[in-house]
Amino acid sequence: MLMTTGTRIKDLPKTDRPRERLVELGAEALGSPELIAILLRTGMKGRSAIEIGKEMIGKFGTLDALSRASVDDLKSIKGVGRDKAVTLKAAFTLARLLVKESQGEAPLLDNPERIADYLREENRRYSVEQFQAVLLNTRRKLIRVERISQGIVDTILVHPREVFKAAIAANASALVLVHNHPSGDPTPSDADIRATRDLIRAGQLLKIEVLDHVIIGRQAGGNGRDYASLRELGYFNA
After folding, report:
1. Most exposed residue of 47, 94, 106, 218, measured as fewest CB within 10 angstroms of its CB?
2. DSSP assignment, residue 111?
3. Of 115, 151, 116, 117, which Cα lies nearest the Cα of 131?
4. How far, CA to CA in Å, does 66 sit from each of 126, 198, 227?
């Protein structure tokens, strides 16, 4: 059933109401606007919650972009006040935490795909570059992720002292360098390559192996993936 402007959810037939449809058919049967409408609970005079949900998807373009929106960004949608914006922000944050929890307390992170899967959701929400060191034990299992520094939009400064200070404190035997590209393109820059080689040399002196440098973006590169591995690209061979 098509809903005309101003139609309230409670005025719809029971089978067309999001909550009833979720109970009857399961959450997977609902579209994003309907799921958002359930979180919003009510619309406003002249606009239903589903219409507001559709506008949100239209404005932000993707659920990924919507999930990274700030409370103020969400409030810019007509009909979304502070309480609704906070509810949405909490729901998206819980989804990210669920992903992390499902990956286990000490996941095996022995290849770039697993690194990207583990850190993808967290890094996608950053609007500036964040440089992290994934600290690993001898079995390549996670000790912890250490945030080293952050930049402005697409520039970041990394000093080997800060990277390896964290690794030594955690008694890590190896680490993987990770940072995001807010532009979405995971292709490494010349600065990324230079910094990686400097850190590889520093790790060799300290007997802490730098296994890879993974750059996480938000769009597919030439290989169809949203991340790049500098080791796979051959920058660890020189």
Report:
1. 94
2. S
3. 151
4. 13, 37, 21
For residue 102, give the amino acid letter.
S
C-alpha distances in angstroms, 95 versus 32, 89, 98, 112?
14, 10, 5, 23
DSSP 8-state class, residue 62: S
pLDDT in tens, 111-154: 999 999 999 988 887 888 999 999 999 999 999 999 999 876 55
46 φψ region: left (φ > 0), alpha (ψ -120 to 50), beta (else) = left
DSSP 166-218: HHHHTT-SEEEEEEE-TTS--PPPHHHHHHHHHHHHHHHHHT-EEEEEEEE-S
What digits encode the pLDDT tens for the residues 188-203?
999 999 999 999 999 9
According to the model, what pLDDT value does residue 10 have?
A: 59
Is residue 201 within 8 A of residue 188, CB to CB? The reply is no
All residues at 6 or more sequence positions from 113 whose CB lies less than 8 Å from its CB, including other chains: 227
Report the sign of the C-alpha dihedral through residues 137, 143, 145, 147, in that order.
Answer: negative
Q: Which two tokens stand for residue 106?
A: 């000490």
Cα end-to-end distance, the chain, whole Å: 62
Say which CATH class 9-100 falls into. Answer: mainly alpha
Cα gap 84→22, rounded to integer Å: 20
Domain locations along the chain: 9-100, 105-229
Report the candidate in 202, 218, 227 with the shortest Cα–Cα distance to residue 65.
Answer: 218
CA-CA distances (angstroms) from residue 89 to 25, 75, 119, 179, 208?
26, 11, 19, 24, 39
| CATH class assigned to 105-229 | alpha beta
